[in-house]
Amino acid sequence: xxxxxxxxxxxxxxxxxxxxxxxxxxxxxxxxxxxxxxxxxxxxxxxxxxxxxxxxxxxxxxxxxxxxxxxxxxxxxxxxxxxxxxxxxxxxxxxxxxxxxxxxxxxxxxxxxxxxxxxxxxxxxxxxxxxxxxxxxxxxxxxxxxxxxxxxxxxxxxxxxxxxxxxxxxxxxxxxxxxxxxxxxxxxxxxxxxxxxxxxxxxxxxxxxxxxxxxxxxxxxxxxxxxxxxxxxxxxxxxxxxxxxxxxxxxxxxxxxxxxxx
Length: 262
Fold this sequence. Notes:
The protein is an all-alpha fold and 262 residues long. It has helices at residues 2-33, 43-52, 63-94, 96-109, 118-125, 129-153, 157-165, 170-204, 213-222, 226-254.
């Protein structure tokens, strides 16, 4: 079994490397042989600029510090969204009155893109960090709340009935049946929310920032510096991949009993 798992992992890794390499090769070929070179640099130029950004500042900071600023903003807002979204999703899934009170507001807010809240968030919170946290929070909150709510509703009623027949009270039913059954759904929502949070940092850092990977892209747009824009995109992509991989590893450890589940 372990050998098969190692082989499967190696095959997936090789497939990923080949696909990325093929994309970069096509991009470089297009830049060398077509008019694409007039509007954007090739991957060699971008990757060189990305590596240089570790030692050469873009604005006031190098890429490490820019990433740290963005990561701090994302993790603060994402953590708040996880706490509030999971609690609200669990309560909406179990208490009909809370669902009746909060679900209409939630359903109205859910389809509105986070970037649409920028103007209002500036009016409410000013031009400081709170506005950025709010925008990122909204991008994560919807996914986490919805998947948590769905997970609670998907719990088999037969299991709940069996627990009650065996003498479990409401708290025991919740902690031993409902919550464990909902955990895979919760992690699914957290995975999606982490990606949307990291993507939304670009919009959030449009609001009076002088640092962050989103600021790198915005300032590159203002200066018409395509290479800098692509460096910011690469930084966001790499860090997003690492965060998603880390969360997936945590899920695999905490939900090992659910391998092959949701």
